[in-house]
Amino acid sequence: MFSPGRGRVGGKVGMVGRIIETADCVAEGAAVLAGREPRFAAALALTGPLPLRRRAGGFPALLDAIVSQQVSVASANAIGARLAAAGLVSAPAVAGASDEALRACGLSRPKLRYVRALAEAGIDYDALALLPEDEVVARLTALPGIGRWTAEIYAMFALGRADAFAAGDLALQEAARSLFGLDARPGEAALRAMAEDWRPWRAVAARLLWAYYRVAKAREGIR
């Protein structure tokens, strides 16, 4: 069991909700969801224990999220590996790199602009981690190239927010269509409405849907 996180920013104490820190946290959420929704229970029986999917926050995590936008998992892995091999995984390194060096790693022209903007934004990542999810999303989406999907993925994986949910993710939408027997893949608004029933464990529901997608489609839906 774990308690809601608290943080102090600018003298104000804010509640950020449940934080997923360990595999036990994920298992707790999965058990709640399976007890509430029989189709989640059936999916969990197929997938087995769900992955933790926590990663360090800060610039590298957002860089990774931008790299992953609108490309396959395999392509994102390849680009990420080339950036790491070139030492281009920190804000100073990216800000100081030439366009040619970044393009050689596989970044498209738009993504090159996005990662430069992120590198030069001067984000206080420690302060960001203490803000409510809505504020995290608002601050990140103010930057070019960071949409709601990227901001919510950051909240889920880097900040560990147990109730964050990236409803715009196509793999989540397709997994929900298949698991719930829908006639068509739900759009972002429709999936977000469905996910209201999964609070306060929507991030665990997402892990379960991604795991189910992997089983049903025999491929990864998220890095």
Low-confidence stretches: 6-14
Query: Ends: how far apart?
Result: 27 Å
Approximately how much beta-strand content do the residues carry?
A: under 5%
Rounded radius of gyration (Å): 18 Å
Q: Helical percent range?
A: 55-70%
CATH architecture of the largest domain: Orthogonal Bundle
- CATH secondary-structure class of the largest domain: Mainly Alpha
Mean pLDDT: 91
Please identify the structural class as seen in this structure. mainly alpha
For the report, how would you describe the main beta sheet? Answer: 2 strands, antiparallel
- The H/E string reads EEHHHHHHHHHHHHH
Count of runs of 4 or more consecutive helical residues:
13
Indicate the overall shape: globular
What is the domain total for the residues? 2
Which fold name fills CATH's third level, the topology of the largest domain? Endonuclease III, domain 1
Number of strand elements: 2
For the biggest β-sheet, the strand order reads 1-2
